[in-house]
Design goal:
Layout (H helix, E strand, L loop, with lengths): L16 H17 L28 E6 L5 E3 L2 E3 L5 H16 L5 E6 L5 H14 L4 E5 L5
Parallel strand pairs: 1-4, 4-5
Antiparallel strand pairs: 1-2, 2-3
Helix pairs in contact: 2-3
Length: 145
């Protein structure tokens, strides 16, 4: 075979553009997925937790909520007013938490007078439910006015 002297020999050419694009994509990917700061769970901070009581705490076995014929609600001599009674809910919630910490059952007894409106007793039951107390009993109330 005779080669023509006038024809030029083509040199092999490698296109580097796809390889450069791939390297750039990999570089960007690793830069975005790498964290340069310490994670929060690696800081060694100890959060406060529940602790056992140092000594026994005397908590009454049950709380008695009294409802008189005028609709006044009282617990341990403290009167609560209004239909929502947020203070009663807060007090009952604290009682339930203290009872759970002492590993006793939180019991509520509702004593309503004979002439008491049912609405006030239902308000007391709603307050107990909002505080998470499920054990409610009803006691015999007084004769009223």
């Amino acid at each position: 075979m005779k080669m023509n002297e006038s024809s030029e020999v083509e040199e092999a050419h490698i296109d580097l553009t796809p390889m450069i694009d791939t390297v750039m994509f990999l570089l960007i990917f690793f830069m975005l997925t790498t964290t340069l700061r310490q994670k929060e769970n690696d800081l060694g901070i100890m959060l406060p937790g529940a602790t056992e009581a140092a000594g026994p705490v005397d908590i009454p076995d049950e709380q008695i909520i009294e409802v008189d014929s005028k609709g006044n609600v009282s617990l341990n001599g403290k009167n609560f007013v209004g239909t929502q009674m947020p203070e009663l809910v807060k007090t009952l919630y604290l009682y339930r938490k203290a009872a759970e910490a002492s590993k006793i059952k939180s019991l509520i007894t509702v004593q309503a007078e004979d002439a008491t409106l049912y609405e006030r007793v239902i308000d007391v039951m709603n307050a107990c439910a909002a505080a998470g107390i499920k054990d409610i009993t009803f006691g015999a109330g007084g004769g009223g006015d």
